[in-house]
Amino acid sequence: MAIFPKNFLWGGAVAANQCEGAYLADGKELNVTDVSVGLMNDPDLKWNPDNGRWEPDLKPEKVYLSHEGIDFFHRYKEDLALMGGMSFKAFRTSISWGRIFPNGDEEEPNEAGLLFYDRLFDEMLKNGMEPVITLSHYETPLHLVTEYGGWMDERLIGFWLRYVETVFKRYKDKVKYWLTFNEINNILRPGIGFAAGGILNIHPGDTSRPNADLTEQMIYQACHYIFVANAKTVKLCHEIIPTAKIGCMLSLSGLATYPYSCNPDDVMGVLEHQRKQYFFTDLMCRGHYPGYIKRIWQERGIEIKMKDGDLDIIRDYTVDYIGFSYYRSAVLKSGKAMKQDTGGSVGIDNPYLSGTSPEPWKWPIDPKGLRYICNLLTDRYNMPLFIVENGIGLDEMPDDNGKIHDDFRVSYTRDHLLQVEESIKDGCNIMGYLYWGPIDIVSAGTGEMRKRYGFVYVDRFNDGTGTLQRLKKDSYDWYRHVIETNGESLHE
Ligand code: BGP
């Protein structure tokens, strides 16, 4: 008996900065991901005391794999045909803001950039896939952060709205599903905040490294401007494309955080940790600042500058659905700091889980955590949910017969899809499932190719060598069959 709805959006997801390459083609300028090898490493920027600016300081000995990515910019027809070969109903990627407004503060858009995405979306539609488009997947133009400090400057709202209005008008007949800021809750996570939030302290006291002295005051002020921009984006989207659906996008592995024990401090610690994620969905789904954040601000002396009308626009324009990524769960023991990476939160080991992804990443594997957060979100917001990232990175190579038997990926994906099915039975309204990285791409966290997510292998390596040839793994046909049976083959 089919559990997945007939119109379930089966597919996959990537991000422009992790696959396109062509990082300076057709007028595009540097964005925040172009100056880092992975988000978990500091950006290569150097303080220039002569002009009081942070400037790019790319290291000749480093390999910035994202600069060429997997050359999706030139090979997207072949790649989308491969995705269509799995009967994808939807394909998520991002528009690289810097292709449309290279420095971010131009008056007029870059036509060459607009043309690229016209062709890309046409190709998706030709292959039977609905484009699901992220407006910013960590891709703030670098100039906006080095010149203005990024989202810490209210002018970003205007630059952003000029960008989104341009692309809404340009692609209104091609794109029905939009996401605003990828994993915007990562702005609170040290290190990832530079890219996730597009924020940089341009009046540093400590110039030893970028954002060495970023404060919570600065981050939460940036959050406010982002919430205002998000609401105005929802308003623009509904006005320009009335039939479109626009969602927020959060990294929600951190919501699947379990208490180490029945110690009330562990339980309260989990509540506070979950509220670090809920803070963003509360603002973008409920439309007001909750009491718990007001207490945090008051106790920490944080005062947010707000304009008349800000709170009204946030209240009146909440998103249509919650898009989120889920990779794994975590365990919180009070008194032990939680760490973060691109997969979510990292606490202490959970002895009850079946295992982890292989060395060196060792991400815990917890399919039930996905059902847990789908139910938490439904209970709190009762809104449509869209799983726009879930997947596993493995260190793989073709065998002597040119095959890749990725049973590990098949079992990971099956186990998580079975929990999606359980969530639907629980009454959760789940719009779709987009497997993260259906083709090998550059890792966000570590900037490496070695961490392969794909159903399709790409011949490129951490040292930048490789033919870029594509090769189907065993999981390619398995996932196609799941989609063609609308999930029923999960029980075969
Ligand atoms: C999320 C990002 C994606 C993706 C994923 C996996 O944070 O939205 O860009 O990369 O993490 O992380 P990684 O690539 O570091 O394995």
Describe the structure.
The chain is α/β, with parallel strands linked by helices and 492 residues long. It has one domain: TIM Barrel. The protein contains 14 helices and 18 strands. Helix 2 packs parallel to helix 4, helix 6 packs parallel to helix 8 and helix 12 runs parallel beside helix 13. The longest helix is centred in the middle third of the chain and has 25 residues. The mean pLDDT is 97. The structure holds 6-O-phosphono-beta-D-galactopyranose (BGP). 6-O-phosphono-beta-D-galactopyranose binds next to loops.
Quick tags:
TIM Barrel; about 15% strand; single chain; alpha/beta; two-stranded antiparallel sheet; binds 6-O-phosphono-beta-D-galactopyranose; about 500 residues
Radius of gyration: 21 Å
Give a count of the beta strands, DSSP E runs of length 2 or more: 18
**How do the strands line up in the largest sheet?**
1-4-5-6-7-9-15-16
Termini separation: 13 Å
Write the CATH homologous superfamily: Glycosidases
| Shape summary | globular
Domain count: 1
The secondary structure category is alpha/beta
CATH class annotation: Alpha Beta
- Determine the fraction of residues in helical runs and give it as a percent range: 25-40%
Beta content comes to 15-25%
Rounded average pLDDT: 97
- Number of continuous helical runs: 14
Named once each, the bound ligands are:
6-O-phosphono-beta-D-galactopyranose
CATH architecture: Alpha-Beta Barrel
Low-confidence stretches: none
Q: Tell me about the biggest sheet?
A: 8 strands, parallel, barrel
CATH topology: TIM Barrel
